[in-house]
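Trying the structure run again after the queue cleared.
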Amino acid sequence: MKTGPLETDFAALATDSPCRILQVADLHSDVEEALNERTRADIRALVTHCRPHLIVANGDIWCGDEHPDAAPMWMQRDIAFLGSLDTPWVFVRGNHDCCADFDRARAMIAAAPNAIAPQGDGKGAFRIEVHRRGAPGAVCWDLFFLNSGPSWNIPEDLLWFESESARIAAERGRITPAAAFFHIPLKNYQDAMDAGRVTGIGVESVLGWGDDEGRAAPILKRPGNLRLCVSAHSHRNDYYFVEDGIRFVSGRATGHGGYGVEDLRKGATLVELSLESDEATTKTVFADGSVWNYDAP
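Done. Tokens:
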């Protein structure tokens, strides 16, 4: 496992097929340590059951925006926990993850055990190439991690994704399937809920969060490489919808410190990417090893 900073434009991850990615999100570890202990126990169990190749901590982890003096301590604590899971992991910033000095925070994450933190655009967006284990020459998937920050700033927050997608397609002479992870869902998530096009549970309004005009999804669709987008943020939602060949997922909230437990049991989202095709599937998983079916009533 990597134990030091990875300061490159991208990183490589060697996996078997399917590539398993465990998204944990919305830990909200600023509330109560007893709740944090439950969350950490759940995540350890999820890692044991799911055996992921990669863990994505998709935002709102330490949540120090209301307690900026304590935020560095909470950040260090949660980075140490993620680094202790003996699994490669990445951090995606959420709207509550206080970073008074973003460069210093990113360097701290990059130096943590098992962290993957390439330079990317230098503003929190980066890319990982997925290779088949034992065959490093061909890229099977690109994983993009995008920083929605306190709220989206569109189109600026997606310009790097668009240019990087074009660059690697020209370099390779082909379009490689890609998945994108970001904390705050886009306006098309709410549009799909309003139109009754979602499969799963959607009871919480997505709101605008900087994408009020719905400009983000068309930008993401433009390069033609995306097959999957996974967001977090909305604790009472767990659903997917398919739009222009892309599976958009609102992932299950993980942390017992966060709201919404009265509507949805805390869990995580397991992504599986085929290395033989561009097929991407998702399911909701729980600490006891059970799985929730999106199509269940």
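Residues 10-292 form a domain with the Purple Acid Phosphatase; chain A, domain 2 fold (CATH 3.60.21.10). Worth checking whether this holds up in the mutant runs.
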